[in-house]
User: Fold these one by one.
Assistant:
Number 1:
Amino acid sequence: SDPVSFYGEHQAGIVTPAQDRLHFVSFDVTTDKRAELVELMQEWTAAAARLVQGKEAGTFGTVGGVPEAAPDDTGEALGLPASGLTLTIGFGPSLFDDRFGLAGKRPAALADLPKFPGEQLIPEISGGDICVQACAHDPQVAVHAIRNLARIGFGKVSVRWSQLGFGRTSSTSRAQATPRNLMGFKDGTNNLKLEDVELLRQQLWVGAQDGPAWMTGGSYMVTRKIRMMVETWDRTSLGEQEAIFGRDKGVGAPMGKKAEFDTPDFAAKGGDGLPLIKNDAHVRLAHPTTNGGARLLRRGYNFVDGSDGLGRLDAGLFFIAYQRDPRKQFVPVQMRLAKTDSLNEYIKHISSGLWACPPGMRDAGDYWGRALF
Ligand code: HEM
C-alpha cells in the first residue's frame, strides 16, 4: 500500500483507517536541557518523515556509514515497504513542569485523570513525558520505527514502557470491516469515523477557540491497558456475554435488532418487561445519549503479553481513544462505566496515559512540538 502522508492539518494515525498492528511507546525525558529536547524533536521528525515512507531512519542507513560507527538505521526493516506506517506524537502532563519552562503552556484539557473506581494502575507502565504511537500493517515495521526513535533519543530520553498490539479493535473508516476484540465481539461499530467530518470537528479536533494555540488542530489521546480475565469470560454463557455488551455476538446487532449498524432502541422491553438492552449493558452506558452527546474516536488494539505464570493468558485490550476534551468525553464515560458496567467483572484497568497530540506537520521545515517549544 502507498505510504501515508506525514504532512497535513492533523497528525496521521488518528483518523487514518486503523492499521493492523501497534507499537506504542512512552518516554521519560532524561536531559534537563531544553535545547537538547528541541534538537531531539527535530531529529525525530526528520527520521519519522523518512520511516513512514519505508526509508531507513538515517541518511547513511544500515550499511552506508563508516565501519567504525554504529549504523544510523538498525536494519530489520530493510526491504520492507512503508506498510501504512504512521507515527503520532503526544505530550504527557508530566512534561509541563519546571524542567523545561512549559508549565504555562499546559492545556486545561490535559488535566490529570481522576481516580476511577476499581482501577489497579501500575505506575511503571503508566504515564510518561512523551508518547509515540506507531501503527502499521506489519509489526516489524512498527517495532523498527519505535526502536530507531529510542536509539536516536539515547541520552535525552529513556523508554518508560512500551506496548505491542497485534490486532486492531476498531474501525476508523466506513470502508473498513469491523474487527473483533479478544472477547469475540465486533468492536468499533458505533465509533467516530473519518467520514463523519462534522462530528470530528465537534468531537475530535481541538478548535482555535479552545486554546492553547499550539493545540489547534490537535487532539487528546487517552490510553488504558485493560486486562481481560479471558478464562472466566470463556466459561460465561453466550446469553450473559451478549447481555453484558447489549449486542449479539454474531453480527454485532443491538439487542432486538437485526443488522450491525441498526440503531439501538434503549426503550425496547422484552417479554419479561425488562429492557432488552440492560441498564448495566456496556453500549447503553457508553452511548452518546447517556453521556450528553459525548463521543470518542476509539483506536485500540488486542494484546497478549504471554502468560502470567498462574495458567492464564496475559491478554486484553490496549484501549486508545482520541477526543477534543477528555474532561467532557473520556472522563465522564469512563466514570459511568467504572461504576456500573457489567463488563467490570471480567476486566481490570492496569495502565493509564493521557497525551496532548499537537496538530499535523505543515512541511519539511516543521517539527514535532514546534509551536509548543
Ligand atoms: C462500544 C467492547 C472498554 C467506550 C463497545 C462495543 C464493544 C466494546 C464490543 C460495541 C461495538 C461498538 O460500537 O464498538 C469493549 C471492551 C472494553 C471496552 C471489551 C474493555 C476491555 C471501553 C472503555 C470505553 C469504551 C474503557 C471508554 C471509556 C465505548 C463506546 C462505545 C463502545 C463509546 C460505543 C457505544 C455506542 O455509541 O453504541 N465497546 N469496550 N469502551 N465502547 Fe467499549
Number 2:
Amino acid sequence: MTVTLPAAATSKETKPCTPLPSSYYTERLSDVSAGRKPSPIWDLLPVEDTPGMLSMLAGKPNPATFPFKYIHLGVRSPTDKTKIEEIAIEGKDLDAALQYGVTTGFTELVDWVRDMMAQVHGRDPDSEAWRVSLGPGSQDLLYKAMNALVNPGDTVIVEGPTYPGVTPIMAALSCQYAVVDVDDQGAIATDMEKMLANWDRSVKPFPKVFYTIPFGCNPSGVTTSYARRIQLLEIARKYDIIILEDDPYYFLYYGKAPKPPSYFTLEKQLGGEVGRVLRFDSFSKVLAAGFRLGWITGPSTLVAAIERHNSCSVVQPSSLTQAVTLPLLKQWKISGFLAHTVATASFYRQRRDAFEACLNRHLADLAEWTVPEASMFFWLKLRLPPTVRCQNLGSPGEEDEGDSAAFIRDKAMHRGVLLLPGANAYVDDRSTARVRVSFSLLSDEQMEEAVRRLAEVLREESTS
Ligand code: PMP
C-alpha cells in the first residue's frame, strides 16, 4: 500500500496543537494507580533545595561516615575514541553521588535530558504539557506505565512479534491482548483499523493503549516507516488510544532512508491534539546498560503517576549512576552526545553488515530474514528439519512451520550455538520457526563460526 504523506508531516511549519487536558489521563488511570498516595517524605524532598531551608526531613545518612573519597573517570571523547578525558567526582558532587536524591532524578540531569529531547524531537522546550522523569531503566518504567494504565483484564494492543521482556509484565498484570501483525513497514495499520472498527466490547474491553517499538524492534528488527507511523497515529487518535512508544533503539538507526520521526515528534508535526504519546528512552544502549538509567517523556499527569509508583518502590534512580552520567553529558553537551550516538549507530551498521554477510554465506537456503536498519537483531525464519516441524497444529499463518524452541533446546545448544526462540515474542501459545539473533557482541570470527554451526546443525538434521 502506498501512502501520501500529509503536507503537515513533510513541511517544516508546525500546525497549531492542543494538549489533551489533565482529566483525560486521570480518567484513564488504573484503579491501583488512581489510589496510589504520594510518599510523605519523598514528595517533600525537593523543598530541601529552597535557599535558606534548614532540613530535618529525611533520614539521610551523613556522608562523612562513608568510605569513598573520590571517583575518577576516564571517558572516551565522542569524536576521537583514542582521546581519554578525565572527570573527577568529589566534594559536593561526591556527596550527591552517595546520597538519596529526588524521585524524578537529579534536577540538572533531568533538565539536560529535557533540552535534548526538545531539540531531537522538535518539541517546545517551554511547554508545560510534557515533561521528563528518570528511572532505573526503561524496563522498570514500562512496567510502571502499564501498571498505571491497565486494570486486570484490560486489553493492550501489541505488535506480533513484540518485545519478549514486556510480555511477562502484561501477564503479571493479567492483561488481555490484541495482536497486530508486523510486516517490513511496521505494525499493519489496515489490520489494526479493521480490528478496532469491528471490536466486540462484550468479549473484551476496548483497548486503551498500543505498545510499540518503532525503531529496530526487538525482536523483529523492523523500523516502522514514516507513512505507517502516520497511519497508526491517526488510528490511535480516531479510536482514542494512548501510544506507549518504547524506543531504546532510537539512537541506533543506521538505515539509508532519512530517519523517520518519533511518534512524539509526529503528533506535534501533524497538529491537532498532543499528549497521546508516552515515550520510553534509555541510556542502556548508548552509555552503559549496567547503569540502569532510562527516562519517560510525555504528558505531565501520566509521568506523575509513574513517579508516585517510583517513590514507593525504588525511591529514585541510582544517585551514583546519575552522578557519573551528569558530568559526562555536561562536558559533551547535546552536540557531543549526538555525535557519540551517530558513531554508535555506525558501529552497529558495520556489525549488521558483517553478520548479514555470514548469513548469506551459510544460511541462504536454510533461513529467511529481512535486513534490519536499526538496533542489533535479525529475526530469522529457520527452515527447520522435519523432526521439529508439524508441532504447531492450529496456530496461525506463516508461523506454522516448526518449533524453534525445541530445535534450540534439543539441537543447536548442543552444538554450542545459542539463540532466542521466537515463541517468546508472541503473546499467544504459538510455536514458530523464528529465532531472534543478536549480532552485537560477537567478533567477525565468532559470527562466522556461530552461523556456520547453525547451518551445519540445520543441514544435518534435515538430511538425517
Ligand atoms: N524495551 C526494549 C524493546 C528493549 O529491547 C529493552 C532492552 N533489551 C528495554 C526496553 C529495556 O531497556 P533498559 O535497559 O533501559 O531497561
